[in-house]
Amino acid sequence: MLLKIALPNKGRLSDEVRELFNEAGLEVKARGERALTASLGGEFEAIFVRAQDIPEFVADGAAHAGVTGWDLVSESGRELDHLMDLEFGKCRLVVAAREESGISGADDVRNGSRVASCFPRLTQAFFDKRGQKVTVVPVSGAAEIAPHLGIADIVVDLTSTGSTLKMNGLREVATVLESSARLVACGSNTPDAQRKLEELKLALGSVLAARGKRYLMANVPKSSLQQVREVLPGLNGPTVVDVLNGGNFVAVHAVVPSKTIYRTVNALKALGCEGILVTRIERLMA
């Protein structure tokens, strides 16, 4: 039986999800750009729906699992099994007020304030928990314009950098929720389905673990080995291998952060290392 995985049908999140699945060996093979389903490496079947509908599809059992934003999962209120954080699509759901409002924190929001948001459930829960009585005004988009039109006093909206809020004369005063893309599953899946989903987690996780990493190999003078160990800590320390007819050299292999590879290579050269090779890593299983 093919497991059905609900994936976003469009947008940046859709692009990033497809890239991740492709890198994990679960190539998205659809009959056309508008296809509603696609094969995922023969093990799973993708169904393409709106990101905001994915929690419902998964909770109702129409899909065994799905990938969507944690903000949408939380807003849905549906009970789902959280399998893993995919570490992209990061954003925050924040309370924002007009610069001239005098509101600098959530405590400054007065009872009776009107709050515009595309996330009415989370917004209401946030203020209820704080004991603040507000009127939530549901909107379908562009919440940041609401204070300027007199529709609401403040907004609760998503932001990643805060630039859109600032552009519209708003400033963040509190964080309601931090979000990213998550793999979630139906709680009533069979043991066989759960086993296959664990395999899916392993495949996706190995790709995520490899991102931002490089595999480095170098011939290292034995006299410099201790200093090289400090330069190349690796996951559990560098791997040291004797080189056939290597004389005073040994081969050292290590996984290193890609963002510091330039400094790492220079440090190794300064210690007399030779034959330095750096390669990309497709998957990494610790």
From TrEMBL:
Start and end residues of each ATP phosphoribosyltransferase catalytic domain: 50-202
Compartments where located: Cytoplasm
Function: Catalyzes the condensation of ATP and 5-phosphoribose 1-diphosphate to form N'-(5'-phosphoribosyl)-ATP (PR-ATP). Has a crucial role in the pathway because the rate of histidine biosynthesis seems to be controlled primarily by regulation of HisG enzymatic activity.
Keyword Amino-acid biosynthesis listed: yes
Protein name from the UniProt record: ATP phosphoribosyltransferase
Listed NCBIfam families: hisG, HisG_C-term
Pathway linked to the protein: Amino-acid biosynthesis; L-histidine biosynthesis; L-histidine from 5-phospho-alpha-D-ribose 1-diphosphate: step 1/9
Principal place of residence: cytoplasm
Source lineage: Bacteria, Pseudomonadati, Myxococcota, Myxococcia, Myxococcales
